[in-house]
Design brief:
Layout: H1 3-31, E1 36-37, H2 40-61, H3 72-92, E2 102-103, H4 104-136, H5 143-161, H6 165-188
Parallel strand pairs: 1-2
Length: 189
């Protein structure tokens, strides 16, 4: 097996298990829908995380992604991103619906600090993945991308410490719009 096949196989297994967890949680909510007080915010966030996983998975699998240049360090760093994404999926939607029911808005705000801390950790690792090789090679940094990463990280920090519903709603919608624009941009160019 080539390095590409090994990496893509591992990512496929882990991301497949991660998505299975997400789909299973959603299925349990739908089955117990009479006992669920629905709220769109955690569902939208679950969709956002789903898109992040698919985008990362696709980026690993497509030709021309320089995967053959990855070192064991890069592989381990990406492995940590996979762990964080799995943990995010594990908390974004409840795994069980108790007989007395569940309020998705209350559930979200019970877990939002943990969830957005995980998102922040993914953002920090992503920044390091983008910056460290460029610094090691004395290659100029892409300043607009760096600023975008830092703004994204600040948004995550806001969501860790804020319980304002409107702020969570606006920033989750903004995150979703950004990832959809990134995907559309890749389709067009």
């Amino acid at each position: 097996m080539s390095k590409l096949e090994i990496i893509v196989t591992l990512f496929t297994i882990v991301y497949g298990l991660t998505l299975t967890d997400l789909f299973s949680s959603l299925h349990k909510l739908i089955k117990a829908r009479k006992n669920v007080k629905w709220n769109w915010l955690p569902l939208l966030l679950a969709w956002y995380i789903f898109l992040v996983i698919l985008k990362n998975w696709w980026a690993m699998a497509i030709p021309g992604n320089n995967i053959e240049e990855y070192t064991i360090v890069t592989f381990i760093v990406y492995g940590h991103v996979m762990i964080l994404l799995f943990l995010m999926v594990s908390v974004v939607l409840p795994d069980q619906v108790p007989e007395e029911g569940i309020n998705l808005k209350a559930y979200y705000f019970q877990h939002h600090r943990y969830l957005w801390s995980l998102m922040s950790a993914v953002a920090i690792i992503s920044i390091l993945i983008a910056i460290v090789p460029k610094l090691a090679e004395s290659t100029p940094l892409n300043i607009p991308n760096l600023i975008a990463f830092l703004v994204y990280l600040m948004m995550n920090f806001l969501l860790i410490f804020s319980k304002k519903y409107w702020l969570h709603a606006v920033l989750i919608i903004l995150n979703l719009v950004i990832i959809l624009m990134e995907i559309l941009h890749k389709l067009i160019y």
